[in-house]
Design goal:
Elements lengths: L2 H22 L25 E2 L17 E5 L4 E5 L4 E6 L8 E4 L1 E2 L8 E6 L2 E7 L3 E11 L2 E10 L5 E3 L3 E7 L15 E6 L3 E5 L10 E3 L3 E7 L3 E7 L3 E8 L4 E8 L2 E3 L4 E12 L2 H5 L15 H21 L2 H32 L1 H10 L4 H15 L8 H19 L21 E7 L3 E4 L1 H20 L5 H21 L5 H26 L2
Parallel strand pairs: 1-11
Antiparallel strand pairs: 2-3, 3-4, 4-5, 5-12, 6-12, 7-8, 8-9, 9-10, 10-21, 11-20, 12-19, 13-14, 13-16, 15-18, 16-17, 17-21, 18-19, 22-23
C-alpha cells in the first residue's frame, strides 16, 4: 500500500474516534441574551402577588421523606415515578443498557416535597401535592405506544393572587454510575435542544463542565436525549420564555425551562400539557406523531454529511424491502457507494503510481539543486506539467470520499433497524458476529471469536502484497517501511475493529475486497508498460 493510502487510513481511524465530538456534537456557544427569574423577586404582601413555592419552607431535601416508587411497563420500556417531587424518576429501555436521565418534569421550587400517588390503571398514574396555598396535580398517560401525555394543573388555594413563574426541570443527566471507558456506545450519548432559531446538540454527553452552561430567552420547541438506539424527547404544548442548561458536576447536567408568567387569582388554576416521545430512534415512528420528534434524529450538523447520511439511511431499507435481508442490504449499499467513488479511487491510485514513477527524477533534481530551492521548485513543476501529474491527486479524491465515510460510520453504528437482525451465522448485526463463544477469556479478544474482522485483516494483508508489487521503491528505507505496513497495519486494524458491530465489519470487508481488486487492476496496467 502506498504511503498516501496508509496516511489516509490513519486519518480515517482518527476521524472514526473523534467524529462524535467534532461533527455530531459541536461545542455550544454561550448566548449573549440571558434571563434568570428568581422565585423570590416578589415579596408575599397582601396587596401584591406571591410566587409559587412550597408552603413548608423546612423541606429542603428528600432525605426525610419516604420515596414511594410507582412502576409502569410498556412495550418500549419501564418507567418509574417517585413520590418525592412527583416526577418521572427513571427511564429504562433495556435492562442491559442504562439510560442516564432522571427527575423528569420536576417543578424546581417543589422538587423535594412529598406527593400522594395513585395508579389509576396499568398505563396511567396521578401524583398530587397540596398545602394551604397551593395544589399541584400531575397526570401521566402512557397508553399511546411511544407517546406519553403529561398534564399538570397548578391551583391557587390562597386568598391572594399568586404569580405563577414555576420553573420546570426537563430532566437531569447523571452518568456517575456508568463505566464510561468500558462501553464505546456511550460516545453516542447526546442531548439536544430546539428553540425558535436553532437546534443545539452536544455529543459524547458523558462528562460536563461550566463550558456546557447556557441560558437562552428564546421559546423552547423541544428538548431531548438519545443513546445508541433510543430517544427521549419532551415537547411543551404551551408557550415558554426561557431555558437553562447547567452543569452541576462532572457527571451531572440539568436542563430546565420556564413558561410565560401568569397571575393566578384566588381559586384559579393553570394547566400545562407536555408530549413526550420515549422509544426507538426510528424516524418513521417519530414522524407519525406529527410533533417534530424526528428532528432529534441527525447524523451531523454539517449539511453535506447530514444529506449523505440521510440518503444512505433511507436507501438501505429499500434494498431490504427487495431482498428481505439486512446483511444483503449492507453489501449492496457498500457496492453502490464504492461504485460512485470508484472513478475517484482509480484516479487517486493512478496518480500515486505516476508519482512513484517520477520519484527517481525528483530525487535527482533535489540532489542537483539542493542549494537552490527556487530553481528546484521551478523544475519540479515543469516535470509535473510534462507528465500531466497533480501532486495532490492522491489525497484530494480521498478527501472527497470522507463525507461518505463519516455518514456510513454513524449509520452502521447507530441505525436502529439493524438491532436484533441476523445474517448468515450472525445473530445480531448491531453486535460483533461472535462465530464462537469460548468458556474462557483470551487476552485482547475476550471470550468470543469474531471472524469478520479477521477476514478483513487477511484481505488487507493481500492488498498490501499486491500494493508492494506495484510500488517502485527508490531506497532501502522505503522498502522496509512497506514491509512493516504489510504486517503491522492488518493486525492493528483487526484488533481495533474486533468489537465493532458486524454491520460495520461487513462494510469494511466488502470495501477492502473491492479495494484489493482495484489494486490488482493497477498492477495489470503497470505490467503492460
Amino acid at each position: 500500500m502506498e504511503r498516501n493510502t496508509f496516511l489516509a487510513i490513519l486519518l480515517s481511524v482518527v476521524v472514526l474516534f473523534t467524529y462524535q465530538a467534532v461533527f455530531v456534537g459541536p461545542k455550544q456557544k454561550q448566548l449573549k441574551e440571558s434571563q434568570v427569574i428568581s422565585n423570590q423577586e416578589l415579596a408575599l404582601k397582601e396587596s401584591s402577588n406571591a410566587t409559587i413555592q412550597s408552603n413548608d419552607n423546612t423541606i429542603t431535601t428528600n432525605t426525610s421523606q419516604e420515596d414511594k416508587i410507582y412502576d409502569i411497563s410498556t412495550t418500549d420500556g419501564k418507567f418509574s415515578f417517585n413520590s418525592v417531587g412527583g416526577s418521572l424518576h427513571k427511564v429504562e429501555f433495556s435492562p442491559d443498557a442504562s439510560f442516564p436521565i432522571k427527575d423528569i418534569l420536576k417543578i424546581e421550587s417543589l422538587a423535594n416535597v412529598p406527593y400522594e400517588g395513585q395508579k389509576i390503571d396499568d398505563q396511567k398514574i396521578s401524583l398530587s401535592y397540596k398545602d394551604r396555598n397551593l395544589q399541584v396535580t400531575k397526570s401521566y398517560d402512557l397508553d399511546h405506544k411511544e407517546l406519553i401525555k403529561v398534564r399538570m394543573e397548578i391551583k391557587n388555594l390562597s386568598e391572594i393572587s399568586i404569580l405563577n413563574n414555576a420553573q420546570f426541570k426537563a430532566f437531569e443527566i447523571d452518568t456517575s454510575r456508568l463505566e464510561i471507558n468500558s462501553n464505546r456506545n456511550y460516545a453516542l450519548f447526546e442531548y439536544s435542544l430546539s428553540d425558535q432559531h436553532k437546534i443545539l446538540r452536544k455529543g459524547s454527553a458523558t462528562k460536563f463542565s461550566d463550558k456546557n452552561n447556557l441560558m437562552g430567552t428564546s421559546p423552547l420547541n423541544w428538548v431531548g436525549f438519545r443513546d445508541h438506539y433510543n430517544a427521549f424527547v419532551i415537547k411543551p404544548e404551551f408557550e415558554t420564555k426561557s431555558y437553562e442548561i447547567k452543569s452541576d458536576s462532572e457527571k451531572t447536567l440539568s436542563i430546565s425551562f420556564e413558561p410565560v408568567e401568569k397571575t393566578l387569582a384566588p381559586g384559579e388554576s393553570v394547566v400545562y400539557e407536555f408530549s413526550i416521545y420515549a422509544g426507538p430512534q426510528n424516524p418513521w415512528i417519530m414522524k407519525s406523531y406529527h410533533k417534530g420528534f424526528e428532528k432529534i434524529f441527525a447524523f451531523s450538523n454539517f449539511f453535506i454529511i447530514e444529506w449523505i447520511g440521510k440518503a444512505i439511511y433511507y436507501t438501505i431499507p429499500v434494498f431490504h424491502g427487495i431482498f428481505k435481508s439486512w446483511g444483503v442490504a449492507i453489501i449492496l449499499i457498500s457496492l453502490l457507494i464504492y461504485g460512485l467513488t470508484y472513478p475517484l479511487t482509480m484516479k487517486s491510485m493512478m496518480s500515486m503510481r505516476k508519482m512513484q514513477e517520477i520519484q527517481p527524477k525528483l530525487n535527482a533534481l533535489k540532489e542537483r539543486h539542493k542549494n537552490d530551492p527556487q530553481k528546484l521548485n521551478v523544475e519540479m513543476i515543469e516535470i509535473y506539467r510534462r507528465e500531466k501529474i497533480n501532486p495532490f491527486g492522491g489525497c484530494l479524491p480521498f478527501l472527497i470520499q470522507m463525507p461518505f465515510f463519516m455518514a456510513l460510520y454513524q449509520i452502521l453504528w447507530r441505525a436502529q433497524y439493524f438491532q436484533g437482525q441476523g445474517f448468515l451465522w450472525i445473530k445480531d448485526l448491531s453486535q460483533p458476529d461472535r462465530l464462537i463463544i469460548f468458556p474462557f477469556y483470551l487476552p485482547l479478544i475476550g471470550n468470543e471469536l469474531n471472524i469478520l474482522p479477521i477476514l478483513t485483516g487477511g484481505i488487507m494483508f493481500l492488498q498490501q502484497k499486491i500494493s508492494s508489487k506495484n510500488m517502485i521503491a527508490t531506497d532501502e528505507q522505503q522498502i522496509m517501511q512497506q514491509k512493516m505496513m504489510m504486517y503491522i497495519l492488518p493486525v492493528m486494524m483487526t484488533f481495533m475493529f474486533y468489537k465493532f458491530a458486524s454491520s460495520w465489519a461487513i462494510y469494511f470487508l466488502v470495501f477492502y475486497i473491492l479495494s484489493t481488486a482495484a489494486q490488482w487492476r493497477i498492477s495489470k496496467v503497470a505490467s503492460k508498460k
